[in-house]
Design a protein that fits this description.
This protein is of the alpha/beta class. Helices cover 37% and strands 13% of the residues. Strand 1 and strand 2 (32-33) form a beta hairpin.
Length: 500
Amino acid sequence: MRVDQFPKDIQPYLIPGPGGDLIYRCLNCQKEFGIRHLLYTCPACGHVLLLYDTDFERLKKISGPMWRRIFDYRRMLNIPALNGIYRYHELIGPVLPLDAAVFLGEGHTPVVEANARLQKKAGIRFYFKNDGQNPSASFKDRGMASALSYIRYLLQQGYVSDVLAVCASTGDTSAAAALYASFLHPDVKSAVLLPHKRVTPQQLSQPLGSGAMVFEVPGVFDDCMKIVEHLSEHYNVALLNSKNAWRILGQESYSYEIAQGFEYDMAGKAVVAPVGNAGNITAIMSGFLKFHDLGIIEDLPRIVGVQSEHANPVYKYYLEPDPEKRCFEPVQVKPSVAQAAMIGNPVSMPRVIRLVAEYNRRAGQQKVFVEEVTEQQIMDWQLRANRNGHVVCTHGGECLAGLVAAKKSGKIAADETAILDSTAHALKFADFQQMYFDNNFPPEYGIIPRDELVNAPELVCPEDLDKVPRPGRPLSGDDLAHFVQRTAEDIAMRLDLKKV
């Protein structure tokens, strides 16, 4: 629809222009810095930053119900920049003009309710938000669209030139970074660091296909992250990991979409997400807090972060009930099928601590929890989900396992409705499914396949066939007819089919 076809009172708000006053603020010393230059940590004390709009109060001049109408009407516009995360421009990138927005089709991924059979097995009503349907097949595109739009803005303004974007990754971040950087080539080039032999072949192929320089490094993600941090501190590069506060802004769109998808009614809702580098759960909390502050939602949903017992530093931190006694300690990770969350020292942990406290304070009760699951539970629930009409990655399986565990422990009530984050497309982690089917997991995973979840192809080639088709040697005439009849009869027998 064209703008002039909308109600008169909504027309002035449909196409946002630059506004607000964004600054970096240190979570430790509270010092503030301008955004003209790329910053990842506080120049004064070295701690992580978040972006704040010092003119956020201007947005409160518009009522919560009016904001709902604005976002709902924007759904009908045919303006590419507003079809993605910048539908919520005033909250995600208010200082950016729309022509700086990089839109590759990210955002507004479907929320799909689980079928009755799977909900009964889990014991609760729930949905998957399929973020594997983003352009690079993971939720990372949300933050990358924000980070690269900001870089594009700096390029347009002449503040930077010839940008080399770098990131450490377990797979999804590198795919998203390389994809979005390639869109801005040659002004932006990308280099990614991956832990050697810790990334699936499908994930490795993505940054290679996007033209990134790919470096494999001995060790795990945390080792790659240390190297990338060193590069960003000593060389002229743009860091694209979630240490980059612009990434967090983009990922807040996940919360906004959930709220809009449920008609802004968050009462009785619980959002379940995996915790790796902790950027996603940071963004989810921040997004819901902003919507709540503006009166767009009246209730803050429950939030449950999930970690594998093989990479569980956030879970261990919150085991201590007394906030004054909590002490964060990184952990040595073990191999995990939730590969993207196999992080022992999440860079966004200071953000998590700050936002959990604020979220619970605003809610008037504890609303943020962390649950732990086993590798066995992750794989079993992933396969159960996909046998019931979903396309869930291992991290979606981790969320479903976490939901079941959280319901059992009382962190989520049986009468609540849960929205689970399936962070990536299942095909990215198809190797783990095959390892399960082949009973080929190394012992350190601790995964034993369940017979009822194992599947394998069956060769159909009746022994009484003299001739069968071969590549380059097709059958014809009576030979083909006999092959078709006998093979069909064999399949019918195995399926116990009855003749019509």
